[in-house]
Every structure is written in C-alpha cells, then in structure tokens.
Amino acid sequence: MPFSPRVFSGMQPTGNLHLGNYLGALTRWVEMQSTHDCIYCIVDLHAITASWQDPMELRQSIRDVAAAYIASGVDPKQTILFNQSKVPEHAELAWIFNCTARLGWLNRMTQFKEKAGKDRENASIGLYDYPVLMAADILVYRATHVPVGDDQKQHLELTRDIAQKFNSDYRAQITETGQYADGQFFPLCEPVIMGPATRVMSLRDGTKKMSKSDASDLSRINMTDDHDTIAKKIQKAKTDADGIPSETAGLAGRPEADNLVGIYAALKNATKEAVLTEFGGAQFSTFKKALADLAVAKLTPVNAEMRRLSADPAEIDRVLTDGADRARAIAGPILSETKRLVGFL
Ligand code: AMP
Ligand code: TRP
Questions:
Q1: pLDDT per residue over 52-111, tens digit each?
Q2: Do residues 317 and 302 both lie within one domain?
Q3: Residues with active-site annotation
Q4: C-alpha angle with apex 128: 126 to 130, nearest 5 degrees?
Q5: What single DSSP character describes residue 3?
Q6: pTM (two decimals)
C-alpha cells in the first residue's frame, strides 16, 4: 500500500529564532500547507539535550516559538501544531528505535560531534540519542516528507536507515498482516530541502551558518529585531571590495556576497539570477539599502503578529493542547501497531 503523503517538521524552543529558521524552514512549512497534510512540532524534548534549560525560560520559549510559527503563517486549524512533550508516543517509539539503531550509525553524526565538542565524556546521553528521537518524531506519524534546512540531511538519512531496518527486522510480521503488501510499515521519508536559502550564513562570516548560538548578535537577524536593528545589521554585514556581479558565476568564492544575494532572493521569492539581473553592477551600499528595506517589509508584520499572540499565552496553550489531541489520534494507533509487530502483548 503506498503511503499517503504527510509532512512533519519541528524546531527547538531554544533562544531566538532568526532569519535562517524563517527562510530555511518556516516559509517552506507555510508553503507546504496548501498542498499537504502537515504536522508541525515544537521539539521541547530535544531542547533539553544540549544543556540545562531554565524551566521558566523554556516554558516561555515554547510559547514564543508557537507564536512565531503562527505569525509566519502556520494555520493551527488546518495544520496540527503542538509541543512534543505533550505526545508521549514520540518518546515511546524512540525507545523501540533505540533497539533498532546501531551505535556505529550514531557515531557518524556530525551534529553530535560539533555540539559535544572536545568534552564528549560530559555530553548527555540525550544529545547522543537526539537523532533517534527525531526519527521517532517523523515515523510515529508515518510522515513521508520532511522540510528542513540543509544541516538536517544526515539526520534524515539515519531516519531512513532506521525505517528500513525496522521494516526488515519485522518483515514476516509486517507481511503477515496482509495490509502492507510491499513489506513497508514505515515509509522511507524524503527530505524537502529547496529554495535559495536552505543554508543562510552569518552576516559576519559567510563561511559560518547563521545560528542562535553565535556569540555575536550582529551575525544574525532575529525574528524579534525591530526596524532599526535589522537595517543596522545589514548595513554592517561583511562584504568584499567588488560590487554586485551580473551573473551567478560572479558569486563564486565570495561567500558573503553570495549569502546576501541568496537572502534577498529568498525574501523576494525570486531566483539569484533574477536578483543579479536587477542589481548587477551596483555597489554594495545600494544593494544593502534595498535588502534592508525588503527584510524590514517582510519581517515587521510577522514581528507585530508575534507580539500580539504572545500577549495571550492562554490562547497559545489552548492551540497547543488541541494540536496535541489531534496528533495523538494519529500517533496512538501507529505506535500500538508497532508494539504489536514487535511482539509486545
Ligand atoms: P535549529 O535552529 O537548529 O533548531 O533549526 C530549526 C530549523 O531551521 C531546521 O530545519 C534547520 O535546518 C533550519 N535552520 C537553522 N539554521 C539555518 C540556517 N542558517 N539556514 C537555513 N536553515 C536553517
Ligand atoms: N533536529 C531538528 C533541528 O535541529 C529539529 C527536529 C527534531 C526535527 N525532530 C524533527 C526536524 C523531526 C524535522 C523532523 O532543526
């Protein structure tokens, strides 16, 4: 039986969301709502893996991220929107997958190596196990499409490996049901990584990803930055001595220029080629002015809506509870069937 298409994605409630999250993930998510059944999650269980989170701040961040999703255009009526810890099926399936995934597979995960750093002995088990929980997030809904930024590619490959090994470990039980003629209980989900901004880079260093954890606030545009701050950060963004080229070949070896052109293209929903046709030959000062105006025009209304929503936390909590109920209605039967296949009574 072919899988009906279903989209799942998630984001951690830690720190401020920035332009990379907005362009690399949120705008994609919003687009997919019109063509697919979508489930979007605030992955709070993942949020406590890397470091201790202040409980009051964590609660606040969960609501803030929910507000950012909705303000960016995620429609909680049409789409299922909830925080991960409200749906225990994620953690329960993750345990089963802990017994499917191999140590060798997790040892290859580059994000763990980066986040654990030199002091690996002191990293939490949760940080190491993070990609297994991520696989459970997706597969507990048997989701087929996962829109994410470029940095999540390796985790999605692991998700496919887990699905494949589970399907093969329990092939006899799966085919016995008669419902899964091709022997596939879990789908091999596809990453959806597209558009000109799958990897938005730091405004201070075009070779580094724009990130919540960068020490310099000038390196990123936060979704909560006001008009003047956005304009100032773009004006101060690092560039090189040349102007804007007329063709994409002229961006080669110029990471900062490439990044700014990519951001402009993504905000405008255009290609880099189209942006270069418009600005080719211009000075950076002219281009930066246009970029700042565009970024402000795009982000200011989202920002205002985030603030309006945040003023009513009870309403956000209600939306998340409703989303969790709808999520459990899908995850519950899939987890029960998984447990039956494994042989639990
Ligand atoms: P994170 O901020 O790491 O929790 O990521 C949340 C989502 O935003 C994931 O889908 C990431 O791939 C995406 N993302 C994070 N940073 C960037 C970036 N600099 N450029 C593009 N996408 C990003
Ligand atoms: N690891 C993802 C990130 O850091 C967040 C995430 C957790 C996720 N579970 C997921 C993304 C499931 C997509 C699907 O961005």
A1: 999 999 999 999 999 999 999 999 999 999 999 999 999 999 999 999 999 999 999 999
A2: no
A3: 115, 209, 212
A4: 65
A5: P
A6: 0.93
* Of 25, 26, 28, 44, nearest in space to 36 by CA: 28
Same domain as 236, residue 132: no
Same-domain status, 267 and 317: no
Closest atom, ligand 1, to C-alpha of 200: 20
Number of domains in the chain: 2
Same domain assignment for residues 191 and 256:
no
Q: Any long-range contacts for 335-338 (C-beta under 8 Å, 24+ apart)?
A: 335/89, 335/92, 335/93, 335/140, 337/185, 338/93, 338/96, 338/185
**Residue of the CA atom closest to atom 6 of ligand 2:** 10
The pLDDT confidence band at residue 178, using thresholds 50, 70 and 90, is confident
- Whether residue 29 is found in the same domain as residue 44: yes
Q: What is the CATH number of the domain that holds 229?
A: 1.10.240.10
Whether the predicted pLDDT of 1 surpasses 70: no
Please indicate, yes or no, whether residues 318 and 256 belong to a single structural domain of this protein.
no
Which domain covers residue 83, as residue numbers?
A: 6-198+313-342
Secondary structure of residue 56 in the 3-state scheme: helix
Q: What are residue 271's phi and psi, to 5 degrees?
A: -95, 160
Q: Is the CB of 49 under 6 A from ligand 2?
A: no
Task: Check whether residue 181 and residue 35 sit in a common domain.
Answer: yes
Q: Is residue 1 part of a domain?
A: no
Q: What is the 3-state secondary structure (H, E, C) of 25-52?
A: HHHHHHHHCCCCEEEEEECHHHHCCCCC
